[in-house]
Amino acid sequence: MSARRGLVVILVVPLASCNLVQSPLNPVSPQARELLWLFVVFVAVLGAIWLAVMATLALSLRPRRPAGADPLAVDPAYERRAVALVTGLAIVTGLVVLVLTGLSYAGQRRLFGEEQAGITIRVLGHQWWWEVRYEDAAPDRVFTTANEIHVPVGVPVAISLDSTDVIHSFWVPSLMGKQDLIPGRSNAIRFTAERPGVYRGQCAEFCGMQHARMSLLVIADEPAAFARWRDGQVAPRREPASEEARAGEAAFVAAPCALCHQVRGTAAAGRNGPELTHLASRRTLAAGSLPLTRGSLAAWIVDPHGIKPGVNMPLIPLEPDRLNTISAYLAGLE
């Protein structure tokens, strides 16, 4: 490889991560924009300081004394200038630290200021998936989903964060900064999505073998679309429309699946795994590990540990016919 080609590769490869799918450089909320502004200010100020230090270091390497000069000779005027310069730089350093601290403090006050929330959500971290519960004053409007969060555009959202096992970290960089989920302690974040879109998030605290495959999607909908989605999620499961789906529901309820998963409107009432009442309305399976299709559902049921080693879902031996009917049933839970 030529030197020119190698230089091109070195310069281009870092740009491969600049697709803005999961990036703090693509803010779509006031909170994310505040964090980006702080980031830019800190990088600019500290970058300028680094350049000044490097320039000073380069200047200090120049020979200052003529050849043959007495190494013990002292220049009082030069020493006074050096003392004044170092003192001035120490004062400037203190002022820069104070200014950056003040900006950081003011930014945190704006980020975590109290604001009346229009939507309240509780997110519970598990190894390795997200349980999402939409709270409401009316008990019949409360529902649970998994790994995807829908929010209305322009409405403040309050999310409480808890964990059932180890420390996780909720991070959707286009909407807000990181916040830990700590067992036995509740944390909270707030954000307001300003435009529709799908914004990827990720657990940002190492939480075990499948930490890298613990992602989530935040989907910002127009208020009318969000209202329709929420009404659909509150409703019980849709009645199976085909003979295959009805057989699949019977097989699902009779299998060990019903001990861990809930499908409202059926005898399946487990709470150890993700809620499945409207599973097919989601975009991915297993916290972003697979696209949600009938084929991926079958693959996940047959061998979850081959796809995501270490998960808590047990291996369940199923005959091919039962597997087909169950996957067809789950694929129809919209």
From TrEMBL:
Q: Which GO terms describe its biological process?
A: ATP synthesis coupled electron transport
Provide the topology term for how it sits in the membrane: Multi-pass membrane protein
Gene Ontology cellular-component terms listed: membrane
Q: Where are the transmembrane segments?
A: 36-61, 82-106
Instruction: Tell me the superkingdom of the source.
Output: Bacteria
| Domain (Cytochrome oxidase subunit II copper A binding): residue spans on this chain | 116-232
Q: Name one Pfam family in it.
A: COX2
Cellular location of this protein?
Answer: Membrane
Q: Which reaction does it catalyse?
A: 4 Fe(II)-[cytochrome c] + O2 + 8 H(+)(in) = 4 Fe(III)-[cytochrome c] + 2 H2O + 4 H(+)(out)
In the UniProt record, does the keyword Iron occur? yes
Query: From the Swiss-Prot or TrEMBL record, what is one GO molecular function term?
Result: copper ion binding
Keyword terms, alphabetized: Copper, Electron transport, Heme, Iron, Membrane, Metal-binding, Respiratory chain, Transmembrane, Transmembrane helix, Transport
Q: Where is the Cytochrome c domain?
A: 243-334
* Similarity field: Belongs to the cytochrome c oxidase subunit 2 family.
**Could you tell me what this protein does?**
Subunits I and II form the functional core of the enzyme complex. Electrons originating in cytochrome c are transferred via heme a and Cu(A) to the binuclear center formed by heme a3 and Cu(B).
Protein name as it appears in the record: Cytochrome aa3 subunit 2
